[in-house]
Amino acid sequence: MRTILFFFTLTLAAQTPESLWRAARSKQPAPEAQPPQILQVSTLDALLRGLYAASYTVADLKQQGDFGVGTYEGLDGELIALDGRFYQMRANGQLTEATDKDKIPFAVLVKFKADVQFSARNVTQAQLGELIDSLIPTKNHFYAIKVHGTFRDLTTRAIAKQVLPYPPLADLIPGQSVFNYANIAGTAVGIRSPSFVAGINQVGHHFHFVSDDRKSGGHALAFTTGDVTLEIQQLRRHAIWLPDDEPFRKAVLPIQ
Ligand SMILES: [Zn+2]
User: What does the domain layout of the chain look like in residue ranges?
Assistant: First the structure.
């Protein structure tokens, strides 16, 4: 690795990342079959514009994916989807499971099935991103990344529910709730998107967190892991469900 700060071991000894991806590729369906899909609801720029009204329910989206990130109607906290459960981390620090009727204005979801697995220890969020970038075969595909284990320190955020007229997201960052955790076990649910989707989705890594006891979580601002396992899924099919409400129809997008 490029620095000794990185500690990582291949799950299968004596195999390189390249050979692991090659083995994963050989297990994928034939080219004519539909490859795994990443589905997103709305666009990131629409969310940044303050379009927090929601067109789709949790029940709708459970059909499309079991793993991912997003938010709830009115920007009511952070969405963490893991193992088919949709969690909501609110600005009051309470994490609950969403109901099927709850609505979602923005989300990125996959049906998670790992292609490869690695281990890492004692890496910061930035170092983990660099490590993953050194392991993936190309930066021009999407990836779903599950990081499970202990986190020595972790800082998350959640934003309080907004009322109409919705302010742009940038106006809400100064008032966001920030939560600090130490030695917490849980899962960082990550999506990595390529640079060419700027304006549509967050470019690069985007992690949300949920603790093993399902009491804590949020949008990850910073962390340092303990021992963690990384599972990575490569995705080459991208779908977008667009809202059809008045604010979305009239929104000037992308944000320049
Ligand atoms: Zn987020």
Answer: 35-250
Q: DSSP per residue over 176-197, as a string?
A: -EEEEEEEEEEEEEEEEE-GGG
Global pTM exceeds 0.85: yes
Which token pair is 240? 């977008």
pLDDT digits (tens, 9 = 90+) for 205-252: 999 999 999 999 999 999 999 999 999 999 999 999 999 999 999 999
What is the Å distance from ligand 1's center to 10 Cα? 29
Q: Which H helix or E strand runs over 107?
A: strand 106-110
Task: Determine the length of the chain.
Answer: 256
CATH class of 35-250: alpha beta
Burial (CB count within 10 angstroms: exposed 0-12, middle 13-18, buried 19+), residue 30: exposed
Residues 6+ apart with CB under 8 A from 188: 145, 146, 147, 148, 151, 207, 208, 209, 220, 223, 228
Distance 79 CA to ligand 1 centre (A): 8
pLDDT confidence of residue 2:
36
Alpha-carbon distances, residue 6 vs 9, 122, 229 (angstroms) = 10, 8, 14
Question: How many angstroms is it from 245 CA to the middle of ligand 1?
Answer: 23
